[in-house]
From TrEMBL:
Its main location: membrane. Residues 386-442 form the NfeD-like C-terminal domain. Pfam families: NfeD, NfeD1b_N, NfeD_membrane. It is a multi-pass membrane protein. The chain crosses the membrane at residues 245-266, 272-305, 312-333, 353-374. GO terms for molecular function: hydrolase activity. This is Putative enzyme. It is found in: Membrane. Its EC number is 3.4.21.-.
Length: 450
């Protein structure tokens, strides 16, 4: 009997000891969405998403990718980040109707596993230099094209994917459907949705080695899913980085500046033009969130200084407050859905309040300063010669017909208007100013104006 009790006690002890460990080993898969042009901001997004999944020891992170392409330098930074990831990165071309074109193809081929939803495409990644004035594509020279062919072939070779088809994505601008991509060995999974992907990818080995682990087998079938949704900031940046919108912002900004310079004094066109011009430059995708934030904060300081030097009754101040707040939010970006960027979500909540308070205080400061300047400009001058007319001074040297009077603590040359003598000590009223000479007349019983 005692032995049975002891055995039960031992079993319970083992359960209690190992229960936390079992609980701590729950499998988690992170899911994030990247939609739109590949820019410097996309680099920040990938880094944020992957870093968050790494910190939480996720089994893998699935990036739902839908992009027409973008900047080559940004793409290469993303590829480097995926290659250095300490967890498997799965690129899932999703949703139906989506694509991983141009730069998106390179990103996909650098991932540890590629999945596609039905109705999506991958490929067509010939490099271009931009667009001509008539809208035609400016092709990249053979030197650049050959570099990217070798680059994409190497990504395919490293992952054991089809090198020939990878090269044709560039040389022939070829695109393929999920079925063709699966047939020719470019992707590993065709999945209708996330649940289908988790089921089909479970047990597969990664095509690329994971940093510090080598190739790993995925165990994601019954994993908990944590979504990292794009933040409001990411959504705004997604729209302004659209090439058409960025182009319109740039041109409208230039028009606003030109119109403002041609109609000085109003200040509205150049203010709006400056903001749109900067947003257009940011929209070109050359900057990351931090650089864009710094640019907007610098613009805000310019608006504040302009308000102090050229009072606009609050126009520059309002523009400065708006750009300061937007710049601060971009500079100290918080989390989209529990993920961390530069600071923790708790710190960012406090920092966001500090940014708003600082913007308001700066706005009030410059508004007050502007109001003071306006009042100083509007104040009626009292030291002008015209203001001396009607004032009464004291004769300190006989005016006969010329002499000297003291007025407002200053000595003035004076001349009697009718030629009569005004002796020392008498009061004389200014009736006219001729150059530096005051024309005066004798008065009695009037206070002197000194």
């Amino acid at each position: 009997m005692k032995s049975r009790v002891a055995m039960v006690a031992v079993v319970l002890l083992f359960v209690l000891l190992f229960q936390p460990a079992v609980h701590g080993q729950e499998k988690v898969v992170y899911v994030a969405k990247v939609d739109g042009m590949i820019t410097g901001y996309t680099v920040d997004q990938f880094d944020r998403y992957i870093s968050e999944a790494e910190r939480n020891n996720a089994e893998a992170i699935i990036i739902e990718l839908n992009t027409p392409g973008g900047r080559g330098d940004a793409m290469q930074e993303i590829v480097t980040r995926i290659e250095s990831a300490r967890i498997p990165v799965i690129i899932y071309v999703y949703p139906s109707g989506g694509m991983a074109a141009s730069a998106g193809t390179y990103i996909a081929l650098s991932s540890h596993l590629i999945a596609m939803a039905p109705g999506t495409v991958i490929g067509a990644c010939r490099p271009i230099l931009g667009y001509g004035q008539n809208g035609s594509i400016v092709e990249a020279p053979p030197k650049i094209t050959n570099f990217y062919v070798a680059y994409l072939r190497e990504l395919a070779r490293m992952s054991g994917r089809n090198e020939t088809l990878a090269a044709e994505f560039i040389t022939e601008d070829r695109s393929v459907t999920p079925e063709e991509a699966m047939k020719y060995g470019v992707i590993e999974v065709i999945a209708t949705d996330l649940d289908d992907l988790l089921q089909k990818a479970d047990g597969m080995e990664t095509k690329m080695p994971v940093e510090g682990k080598g190739k790993v087998v995925l165990h994601i079938k019954n994993a908990d899913v944590v979504y990292l949704e794009p933040s409001f900031r990411d959504t705004v940046v997604k729209y302004i980085t659209d090439p058409t919108i960025a182009y319109l912002l740039l041109n409208i900004g230039f028009i606003g500046l030109i119109f403002g310079f041609l109609t000085p004094g109003w200040h509205v066109p150049e203010t709006i033009g400056a903001i749109l011009l900067v947003l257009g430059l940011i929209g070109l995708g050359y900057f990351g969130y931090r650089s864009a934030g710094l640019i907007l904060i610098v613009l805000a300081m310019i608006f504040f200084i302009a308000e102090a030097l050229t009072p606009t009754f609050g126009l520059f101040t309002v523009a400065g407050v708006v750009t300061f707040v937007i710049g601060g939010i971009l500079l100290f970006s918080g989390t989209g859905a529990g993920g961390e960027y530069l600071v923790t979500s708790e710190t960012y909540s406090v920092l966001r309040i500090a940014i708003l308070v600082m913007a308001i205080l700066l706005g009030l400061f410059f508004l007050f300063g502007a109001a003071t300047v306006v009042r100083a400009h509007r104040k009626k001058p009292e030291a002008g010669k015209e203001e001396l007319i009607g004032k009464v001074g004291k004769v300190v040297e006989d005016v006969d017909p010329e002499g000297v009077i003291k007025l407002h603590g200053e000595l003035w040359k004076a001349e009697s208007r009718d030629g009569s003598r005004i002796p020392v000590g008498e009061k004389a009223k200014v009736v006219e100013v001729r150059g530096l000479t005051l024309i005066v007349e004798k008065v009695g019983g009037v206070k002197e104006g000194e």
